[in-house]
Amino acid sequence: MPVYKDDNTGKWYFSTRYKDVYGNNKRKMKRGFTTKREAKSSEASFLNDVNEGFSDSNTYDYIFNHYLEHTDLRPKTKRRKQNEYKKHIQDKFGHINMNKITQNQCQEFRKYLMNNIKSTNSARTIWSGFKVVINYANKYFGLRSDPTISIKPIPRVKPKPKYMLREEFDDRINEIEEQDYRELFTLMFYTGMRIGEAMALVWEDYNKYKKEISINKTMDITNRTIYPRAKTESSEDIVPLPKFINNMLDERYQREKQANKYFNEKSFFVFGGLAPKHYSHVHKKFQKVFPEYNIHVLRHSYASYLANNGVDIFVLQSLMRHSQITETMGTYSHLYTEKKHDAISIFDK
């Protein structure tokens, strides 16, 4: 197909007709090429995508980028996948047609990850991301065989979660001078909320009469972006509040409402005001008082306290907002040892 030169700019462009996926006649024009060759190459690439865009003869690179563009991923997740791809996958598979990837290549890639990535869980994450693109090609690009199907998965290493006792938390939290941070950490300890969920709260999410908080969004702590959905589908739920936490929030609500001229329940953050707090500040305050813990330990401590005080594991699953009971059991079943002894004591009666 011919390409054209713009007399006004001296740049080249192409203009071509094609049929879209619905069979409708369309025209594609793209400008700004320095040379005629660049314009022709771009036009040829575009037409190839139109004609063979959903073929397993496309490269891994093409299908990876198609996956990123057409999958509903959070920006944070997309950035992580792009970084993992560029660092570990692109030079090995990016140029290979998807239907030419072999089992031996995949086996060598697994070996590379196990030998070069210090964390087994990080290696597992990269391997899973690699397989996701292959599964995507199988579903949307007609890939007939999965070259990874007979390769042993990289195992998940689940460390035993750290947690602090309620007495320890109640004693040490008073070392934090600023009331904002003291109340933020207290809310997290006694509700099991994640940091992104707590920092995304606006006053509209709080109901003092029902003594509960609605979790329906989260904050990306790297850039303070609020996403209008929880971390997972199961995370979007109601969190019940102990009476003393409800009283703490009610008092905070009254203070904030009186102190701020532009107070609005729909847009005023529970911790931050017109804008959420910076996570770097939150992290710094937490580490000053709890240097041996990370902030997620508050969530583990909440679950551990409930488990140690006899809360049924299925109720714990609901309170933790886990999608599967296996997630709850895999993390906290070791805390139910006493329950097992209580159950088996029936034989001694």
From TrEMBL:
Which residues are in the Tyr recombinase domain? 159-345
Signal peptide region: none
Query: What PROSITE patterns does the database record attribute to this sequence?
Result: TYR_RECOMBINASE (PS51898)
Q: Which InterPro entries match?
A: AP2-like_int_N, DNA_brk_join_enz, Integrase-like_cat_sf, Integrase_catalytic, Integrase_recombinase_N, Integrase_SAM-like_N, Tyrosine_recombinase_XerCD
The UniProt keyword set, sorted, is: DNA integration, DNA recombination, DNA-binding
User: Pfam families attached here?
Assistant: Arm-DNA-bind_4 (PF14657), Phage_int_SAM_3 (PF14659), Phage_integrase (PF00589)
Sequence similarity: Belongs to the 'phage' integrase family.
Name by which UniProt lists this protein: Tyrosine-type recombinase/integrase
- Native source organism of the sequence: Staphylococcus hsinchuensis
